Amino acid sequence: MLAKLVKALYLAWYLQQAGFGALERDLYIDAERILDAAARSASEDIWLIAAADCAPITRLLDLHEQQLQTAPVFAVDEAESRVVHFGRSDKRSPW
Questions:
Q1: Which domain holds residue 65?
Q2: For the chain, how many structural domains are there in total?
Q3: Which of 28, 38, 59, 74 is the residue whose CA sits 20 to 30 A from 5?
Q4: Do the beta carbons of residue 34 and residue 56 sit within 8 Å?
Q5: Do residues 16 and 22 lie in contact, with contact meaning Cβ atoms separated by under 8 Å?
Q6: Which superkingdom, per the lineage (predicted)?
């Protein structure tokens, strides 16, 4: 599930870059930091996001839901391709 949240983070970013929705860049940075911390502290497939850190993730997921309702399939496919390309790169973040 954590991997799906990370994928949603990057898909939302690339869909935003394509003109679908808008959140401030700092929210993406916060969400990435929160998910990275959850991954680093995970043990035996158990991970946790602190209650105080839920707001950025919730806002991101709300945006992504709206994006998936409004973006055409080709835009989602392009964003997914960009996520895969990013995953294969040496870059730390897409922003």
A1: 2-88
A2: 1
A3: 74
A4: yes
A5: yes
A6: Bacteria
Residue 65 to residue 86: CA distance in whole angstroms = 22
The answer, as to whether pTM is greater than 0.85, is yes
Who's near 14: CB < 8 A, 6+ residues apart? 78, 79, 82, 83, 94
How confident is the model at residue 80, as a pLDDT?
A: 98
Residue 24, by phi and psi: left (phi above 0), alpha (psi -120 to 50) or beta?
beta
**Pseudo-torsion of CA 41, 46, 52, 58, nearest 10°?**
120
User: Is residue 41 situated within a structural domain?
Assistant: yes
pLDDT digits (tens, 9 = 90+) for 30-82: 999 999 999 998 887 789 999 999 999 999 999 999 999 999 999 999 999 99
* Rg from Cα positions in the chain: 13
